[in-house]
Structures are given as structure tokens and as C-alpha cells.
Amino acid sequence: MRFENLQQVVGGEGMAVILLTDMERQWALSVVCDEPMSQQLQMRVSNPKACRNMLPETLLRLLPSSYEMMICGLIEGQYQVVLMNEMADSVHLRMSDAVLLSLMSDIPLYIEDSLFKRQCFPFDEKAQSIAIPINTMDLPRLKSALEHAVENENYELASQLRDEINRRHHERG
To answer: What backbone phi and psi angles, to 5 degrees, belong to 29?
Structure first.
């Protein structure tokens, strides 16, 4: 997966959506991120040379071995990403941190095939909006979206959001 762009969510209280695409730019994956991560990504996209001597970039140059990252699951609305080196050492990362790391370095970001087929959608670079799958939203955002859907009498969406909230409660219990 590769970083395609970042779009601010209108009325989203600093929330933004990261859009990733496959290397052929045929399929896309959307990822919600918070304002601090959005700022970090924007800084590196708009002026990568100015970031060259920042601490994260400096530390990356000190890494002795090669790494890769794998998006390997989705739990309670959060993508699960593993950073691995050639010695099979691994750590878990937030999805937005993995995107930032991939953008700053040559560390590839892969996604498991079954997750790719389930979560990705056809990429259209002329699209005016981006879909955010409800299974990637955190619980507070789901509840807020449910309230908004009911207020707007969008009962089909409200039903889907309610089902996702209930599914997560059953998984925990």
C-alpha cells in the first residue's frame, strides 16, 4: 500500500482521512487519523526536505536492518499493523503511525490478502468524497454517527451502525 493523500473531515473536530492505494492505484483503503497525526503527515508531504533532520527521520537512518510492515487484522475498529525486521523481531503499531513511517522511509506497507479484499474499494482519483467503512470507526465515533443518522432520519444507516455497535459489545462480553 502507498500513501495517496490526506483529507480533512468537515466538522470532524480535527479528524482526517488517510487514503492509501495499491501500487497500481486501482484499489484504495481509507484510514481515520487524529489531528496530531494529520499535522505530521501534512508536514512531510508539503516539505519533506524540511523534515530531513527531525528526530524521527534521524532515528530512521540509524536502523541497522531492513523492515516491513503488515496490516494483518481489524479489532474494534482499529487496523492491526506489525513492524517486522529480518530477524523476525516485531512490534505492533497504530495504523496511522505505520503510514507515517512508510511515508518517511522505504519501509513497505503490505496488507493481508483477505483483509485487502474485504476493506478496499475501487480507487477514483476524481472522487469528491471518501468512504469510511463503519468497521474501522472507533466506538465513540460510531455512537455519534448513530445519533446523527437518527436525527437525519437515515434509518438504514442507523441500523447498520447499531448492528456494528452491538457486534462489538458481544465480542467484548
So the answer is: -135, 130
Q: How far apart are CA 129 and CA 147, in angstroms?
A: 21
Amino acid at 31: V
**Which residue type is seen at 35?**
E
Q: What are the helix (H) ranges across the chain?
A: 35-46, 55-61, 95-104, 113-119, 139-151, 155-172
User: CB-based contacts of 4: which residues, under 8 Å, 6+ apart?
Assistant: 19, 20, 21, 25, 28, 123
Tell me which DSSP letter residue 169 carries: H
The CA distance from 34 to 97, in Å, is 11
Angle at 135 between CA 38 and CA 155, to 5 degrees: 110
Contact call for residues 99 and 83 (beta carbons, < 8 A): no
Q: pLDDT per residue over 41-70, tens digit each?
A: 999 999 999 999 999 999 998 887 789 999
Kindly report the backbone phi and psi dihedral angles of residue 9, in degrees, each rounded to the nearest multiple of 5, phi listed first.
-90, 120
pLDDT, tens only, 22-40? 999 999 999 989 899 999 9
Instruction: Read off the DSSP letter of residue 9.
Output: P
pLDDT reading at 173 higher than 70: no
Handedness of CA 86, 20, 123, 162 (dihedral sign): positive
